[in-house]
Amino acid sequence: MTELQPARGTHDLIGEDQRRHHHVAETARRIAASYGFDEWITPIFEDTRVFSRTLGETSDVVMKEMYTFEDRGGDSVTLRPEGTAGVCRALVTNGLTQSLPQKVFYAGPMFRYERPQKGRYRQFHQIGIELIGPSEPLADAEAIACGWDILKALGVADDTVLEINTLGDKESHAAYRDALIAYFAAHQDKLSKDSLTRLERNPMRILDSKDEGDRSIVAGAPTIEPYLTEAAATFYAQVQAYLTGFGVPFRKNPRIVRGLDYYGHTAFEFVTSKLGAQGTVMAGGRYDGLVAEMGGPRTPAVGWAAGIERLGMLMDAAPPPPAPVVVVPIGEAAEAAALGVLQALRAAGIRAEMAYRGNLRRRMERANKIGARATVILGDDDIAAGVAQVKDLRTGTQDAVAFAEIAARLA
RNA sequence: GCGGGCGUAGCUCAAUCGGUAGAGCGCCAGGUUGUGGUCUUGGAUGUAGUGGGUUCGAAACCCAUCGCUCGCCCCA
């Protein structure tokens, strides 16, 4: 490969791509702020243990998907594969476990070493929120409502459905897990090869197998509800009641699972059918066990994360940048006067550009091409008279405006 | 990590059976050196992803490699 290319799974965000990206992040930031979330900016790389600790031993495979390397001092660091672990680490290292609740919003790049697919990259970007402290089911519903509002504001809510499930508390979860293993073990002969290995290392994952044959077996598998303790069942019912109270439509999906131990109770995903196999657009749940694994006191928390690229692909179009005003001097003498006009426009908050080169016709063409809404044409006669020709490129009308009034005229 | 499809101009894409590469758009310049959009005339651009092989001859066939894409695995 002689020509330089972006590294595999990375991409440049330019033009429309950048605008979509920015619009997703800004919209999320604004709406999260209205819910009382403050933005945290945590490091893009962390001590590898920040992630390995939370991922536990399920994950000799998972470790292979992280960007982990030794720095020059011999310490193992990892480019963050997700946002929650870093936020929990920051909560602990900043002593904020004494100041709960903390309502955190974040946005930024994440890194996973995997095979790129539609909406799935090695460097990608996520937005997310974490509501740390409350153990009440109202917090779960509020986090979800915030996510729903963001999807609505982005115009993607119509193509998206919220699916919720409960993972129960420890007791419920253990009982359900045993029941599932017993069920699938009884159907071992009909399970796919992949699911047989799942049965060994991560039986819950059989529930979202994509294999045709597995699906019919999964269809008959037990759901968690009969195994819920009374407390867990009540919690789940309350989450649903609050969601209804917030006006968030949802569908129960007993097949939603989470791989790691620190998850419990609520698990949810916003799903679209418009992105092929990568249909989950926002996912989250309650993780009361994570802060403790980070070395802090046991602290309840709930949150979600969403891929900016995926949301950007679902959006109709990003709002276009404001149309500029172009200042067009005719001749060298006029250029000096044009600089003053240009800066006056900018000072008034108007997006203004200078037409650098070519004859008048060329400069007008240029202005038109970049989508200018108006041009301010400055000739020697005009300058002598203290005016400029302000031409509206949409209507084609043009008239002389005194220097001092140009900015107000174009505001 | 595994499997399918694809890779030709800045972009979107053509080219019969293997005979030495084209269109549209865009770009640049002129028609019009004080007025854009429409019109019109002309112009530039390709290491055919890369490397190897078969052949008198390869964009086309074969192998490898890189990248993109769709799916699987995984999904914190």
Distance between the termini: 51 Å
The CATH class name of the largest domain reads Alpha Beta
Instruction: Provide the β-strand percentage band.
Output: 15-25%
Structural class label? alpha+beta
Please give the radius of gyration in angstroms: 28 Å
Number of strands: 16
How would you summarize the topology of this molecule?
Layout: H1 16-34, E1 38-39, E2 45-47, H2 48-55, H3 60-63, E3 67-70, E4 76-79, H4 84-93, E5 102-111, E6 123-132, H5 137-153, E7 160-166, H6 170-186, H7 193-201, H8 212-219, H9 230-246, E8 251-252, E9 264-272, E10 280-286, H10 290-293, E11 301-307, H11 308-314, E12 325-329, H12 332-347, E13 352-354, H13 360-369, E14 374-378, H14 380-385, E15 387-392, E16 398-402, H15 406-410
Parallel strand pairs: 1-5, 7-8, 12-13, 12-14
Antiparallel strand pairs: 2-4, 3-4, 5-6, 6-11, 7-9, 9-10, 10-11, 14-15, 15-16
Helix pairs in contact: 1-5, 1-11, 5-9
The structure holds one RNA strand of 76 nucleotides.
